[in-house]
Amino acid sequence: MSRLANKTAIITGGAGSIGAVTARKFLDYGAKVVLVDLSEEALKQTVKELNSKEVDYIVADVTKSADVERYVKEAVKRLGKIDIFFNNAGIEGVVKPITDYPEEVFDKVIAVNVKGVWLGCKYVLPEMSDGGSIIITSSVAGVMGSPGTSAYNTSKHATIGIMRSVALEAAPRKIRVNTVNPSPVDNRMMRSLEDGFSNGHGEEAKKELEKSIPFGRYAQPSEIADTVVFLASDDSKFVSGTLHLVDGASQA
């Protein structure tokens, strides 16, 4: 309970699987949480399932600076301060070779996964408590390539660049900035990608992807959340500017 006692947190992509499971763990460890996402219906359902008086939500589009500035100001008003920022919102795009990849989908993936992360850091950092923690969701796709996902891979490489720059800028205030880099996670996003890799044969695609992971399976959202909790807590008080693979030895 005391690991995050008296801490406050913003989680973008708060209605998604990793965001919601991380929120549950933050709450269990004593934090107060504000969830940010695009769908009010999904946010309301997540808050209902979390069933805690210490969680609230704000509807916002992370790609729009006015929305980001608004959710940050509103979160400070509701929480009183910001100690933890889980900069987690992201989308997968489609699976197509670069020669066929729709430009408008590329733009959307970059807007959410890169600009959204950048804007979050831009507006949260001035309001964050000294000694706080920013955790950015990247991916194993941020350290490797894969065919058909050029936009997603590009975006997740870019988040590592943002992290490394902001970690140095925030260091004088002892604010830590790190990425968490999951391998495939057993959630909605992977169902979408599996179908993209093998249209109509997603289950077969899943089995092939699992074979590429030395542990022989996908990560669970809770396993990603465990690493985020470590990075959010004072247990990581001298850890900054680093990426944290949660990948079942995929990059060993």
TrEMBL record:
Keywords recorded for this protein, A-Z: Oxidoreductase
Keyword Isomerase among record annotations: no
A Pfam family recorded for this sequence: adh_short_C2
UniProt xrefs under CDD domains: SDR_c
Superkingdom of the source species: Bacteria
Cell inner membrane among keywords: no
Family statement: Belongs to the short-chain dehydrogenases/reductases (SDR) family.
PANTHER family: DEHYDROGENASES, SHORT CHAIN (PTHR24321), ESTRADIOL 17-BETA-DEHYDROGENASE 8-RELATED (PTHR24321:SF8)
UniProt protein name: SDR family oxidoreductase
